Amino acid sequence: MKVLVTGGAGFIGSHLADALLANKHAVTVVDDLSTGRREFVPGGAEFIEADISTLKFVDITQRISPDVLCHLAAHISVSESARDPRGDAEMNICGSLNVLTAAQRAGVKRFINVSSGAVYSPHATLPYREAAATAPLSPYGVAKLAVEHYCQYFAQYRGLPTVTLRLGNVFGSRQNPLGEAGVIAIFLQRMLGGEPVEVHGSGAQAKDYIYVSDVVDAFVRLLDAELPAARDLTGSCYNVGTGDPRSVNEIFTLLAGMSNYRLAPAAGPARPADQKLVTLDCGRAHKVLGWKPQVKWEEGLRWTHEWFAANRGFFTG
Q1: Which of 73-77, 103-107, 187-191, 221-225 is predicted least confidently?
Q2: CATH (residue range 2-170+212-240)
Q3: Are 172 and 209 in contact (CB under 8 A)?
């Protein structure tokens, strides 16, 4: 089938494009290269440099007429969203609305939206199930939840079949360590360069980290999976995580050992919009998609370390 991937020159999107091509799908990647890298786009994919918020993107989608649209283009920094809520909303809400509109007009048969565990209320019962209370702490989470609601609107009233994956904290090769998203990538970049590493707050905050290939597997399974009817927002969402949270302090210790890093971490201020504990219940994805994470935590960390060690200097600020 024909699949359009927004943000396909980025971390998760490029891995998804690789997997789609391996499964014999025709792939078009649309990315504005603001954070993505052209060299990450696989050679078998059509690449179009474009901003998802423009009319050009609508025209591109009409021309391609994809069967499936996987929407991964987004600003991903929680702390940056807190500093610039309007800029975050312009990209993550208004841009996504343009993508939804383009998909509906092009007759897309399945729209796969990427959301986050950041949408859940910190007061909800752990592990978070899809029906748990939502009360995002950050503008990033607010935007992700808003787009979920827009997906439900397009599904109910505009005939666009939509489904959302609420991802844990994804890590792996190609993750951009610049900025403030992806603590594993940031730590590795600095450790391998012999630079100071900053731990915000106590370091006890723990998230549900998942290796990128397991996330891609969920996307691939969703392409043609028979999904139950979703009568409300939570029925169209699927958590994708491990259910096994890991703390920042644990990550620091493991990566320092792999990197032969001897410096003590510098203490940084706690982030007010940062959830202190996130763990996802992924039972629905297992039941409906037959999906389970396959990569063990230490194995995924080792592979990620190996990639960053072999590609020192790839990301420069």
Answers
A1: 73-77
A2: 3.40.50.720
A3: no
Task: Give per-residue pLDDT as tens, 91-111.
Answer: 999 999 999 999 999 999 999
Conformational region of residue 159, where left means phi above 0, alpha means psi within -120 to 50, and beta covers everything else: left
Catalytic residue IDs: 140
How would you list the strands of the sheet with 162-167, edge to edge?
Answer: 46-49, 26-31, 2-6, 68-71, 110-116, 162-167, 237-240
Exposure of 87 in the CB half-sphere (CA atoms within 13 A): 10
Q: What is the pTM of this model?
A: 0.96
Domain over 172-208+243-278+294-310 is classified CATH 3.90.226.10: no
Beta bridge pairs of residue 49? 31
- For 244, list phi and psi in degrees, rounded to 5: -130, 85
Pair of tokens at residue 48: 């179009």
Q: Do 175 and 13 form a contact (C-beta atoms < 8 A)?
A: no
